[in-house]
TrEMBL record:
GO terms for molecular function: methyltransferase activity. It comes from Paractinoplanes abujensis. This is S-adenosyl-L-methionine-dependent methyltransferase. The keyword Magnesium does not apply. Keywords: Methyltransferase, S-adenosyl-L-methionine, Transferase. GO terms for biological process: methylation.
Length: 274
């Protein structure tokens, strides 16, 4: 289990508890209930008000809303989720039995997910695949599990490209394009406009544990591609942007304004077609 899988589940559980949530993920709290605390404590869902947790909750709520809508619009029979973590779209979006969702992540994360969701039935065909994107042959892993490049596919890179170098991210986009010759194939993703800086959030208002978590995230994202023009970046790797926005603009459109201290962060969210 990793923080990168657990923290989004925490944020989705928090959003689900809101009086008027942007989406509902009824399974998210089950992951928190089974978490044994080995990575450190998570904030209480009832009192998560610090700058760090408020920022994280906002970011995940906005991007999840975008990704959910984009998946529904894509309407394709194959979905590949990169770094799937504890996401539950195969269970909660009402995808039909004609849809196959390939969930790619590390074996330990998928094993935890299987234990927690034992007995739950996805609405579509769900195929968990233990693999390391960038280290394993993604095409071979997918094809070995029944993926068909001739079938329209939606690729989801939610909070995933942040952890790659520019070269790795470019190679991944090229590889997905090569597997997406079918008309209607889509890419839904998220990239940063500039590298995060420790001062992007008010660290003076954080506890020592929160500071450590924030600094670890800043370091983890330190090698990520900085994309100033997402449409041009996508075009350079065989994808045509259909929608590009950022979290703050999208939050405003959703009547969910960003916390006032969040304005220094720029996360692009996009959808694209082949």
């Amino acid at each position: 289990m990793t923080w990168t899988a657990l923290l989004p589940a925490w944020a989705r559980a928090l959003e689900t508890r809101r009086p008027h949530p942007l989406f509902e993920d009824p399974l998210a709290e089950r992951f928190l209930a089974r978490y044994a605390g080995e990575l450190g404590p998570l904030p209480d869902l009832a009192v998560a008000t610090s700058p760090l947790w408020s920022a994280f909750a906002y970011s995940v709520a906005i991007r999840t809303t975008f990704f959910d809508a984009a998946v529904r619009r894509a309407g394709v029979p194959q979905i590949v989720v990169l770094g799937a973590g504890l996401e539950t779209r195969a269970y909660r979006l009402g995808l039909g039995p004609e849809v196959t969702v390939f969930e790619i992540d590390r074996a330990a994360t998928l094993a935890f997910k299987e234990r927690v969701l034992a007995g739950e039935r996805p609405t579509c065909r769900r195929v968990p695949l233990a693999a390391e994107v960038g280290a394993d042959d993604l095409a071979a892993v997918l094809k070995g599990a029944g993926f068909d490049p001739a079938v329209p596919t939606a690729w989801l890179a939610e909070g995933f490209l942040f952890y790659l170098t520019p070269e790795q991210a470019g190679d991944l986009l090229d590889g997905m394009a090569a597997l997406s010759a079918a008309p209607g194939s889509a890419l839904i993703g998220e990239v940063i406009g500039r590298s995060y800086d420790p001062g992007d959030l008010p660290v003076e208002l954080m506890s020592e544990e929160e500071k450590a978590t924030w600094l670890a995230l800043v370091a983890a994202f330190g090698r990520a591609p900085e994309v100033t023009d997402p449409a041009a970046w996508l075009a350079g790797h065989g994808w045509s942007a259909t929608e590009v926005t950022d979290q703050i603009a999208l939050g405003t459109a959703l009547a969910r304004p960003a916390p006032e201290f969040y304005t220094g962060l720029q996360n692009w969210i996009f959808s694209a077609r082949r």
